[in-house]
Amino acid sequence: MVIAIIGILIALLLPAVQAAREAARRSQCINNLKQIGLALHSYHDIYGSFPPGAVFYGGTDYGSGPINNRGSMHVRLLPFLEQQQLYQLFDFRNGTDNLRVSTPFPDGNTLLRSVAIPVYLCPTDNSNRKLDTVPNQVQVSNYYPSMGPTYTITDNPSCSCPEYALWQSYGSPNTNNDNPAGPFTRRGWHFVCRIADVPDGTSNTIFVGEVRADCSGHVRAGWSHSNKWGAFTQIPINYDSCYPDVASAQAAGKTACAARCTWNTEVGFKSQHPGGANFLFGDGSVRFISQTIDHWTYQYIGDRRDGRSPSGY
To answer: Residue ranges of the domains in the chain?
Structure first.
């Protein structure tokens, strides 16, 4: 009888313990995003704009081809996150994606993008680990800059999602990689956002949100990689794109939209927090947004200049 009572008590206490642990993890996740927000504004104070989401392609051609692949927002925020020493290892005169150190790090890796930056990792997500094998591992980030409802999500022909046109239809008119609806783009040679470029107000505009490496091929490239497309609000929060390939998605009775190779459903915001995800707004505030949010409302707070400032989400 005593053993049975103890078993019942443990069964009753376990959910409460798990809930308390998740609350602590979510609190740390929120704090990470707040630190990123402070870093973004410190950067803006010095340079007069926020950093580019990434500098992937479309760079200036000085006669020998365009200068591309110059890293992500995450790299440029390093000095404002007490990571000046690591930042100094990035040589922006050359492509930064595969830069290495000559002497391996303590874990045996040599790629700069193998270094784990604690503020870029949400403790709730069990997929925020290093990927690949030593010495070529890469470290992912759980936080991505927002492109909002930019009309540029595409369809991977080898991983074609039949819902592509549906989600593309939520894109803001006259937006593209050089003129994003959100504050960031991966074509940082052509656009960087200033506070003045957010007429809807920084308190009404998503700047950064959560992502998952298990659910996105782009996220799996690592925190400093320049092919950082950002994430798009057209894709519903926590849309399941977490199957490793088309075959595994189809074996589970799903379409390729559930695979992390789509170039569209994979680049939505996602978290392992129950019911939604944390988002950093441009004023530095962090809010948890439910995955059941009205989808048009989600687009309005993703767009920096659509003239709508919805409340109550």
So the answer is: 32-313
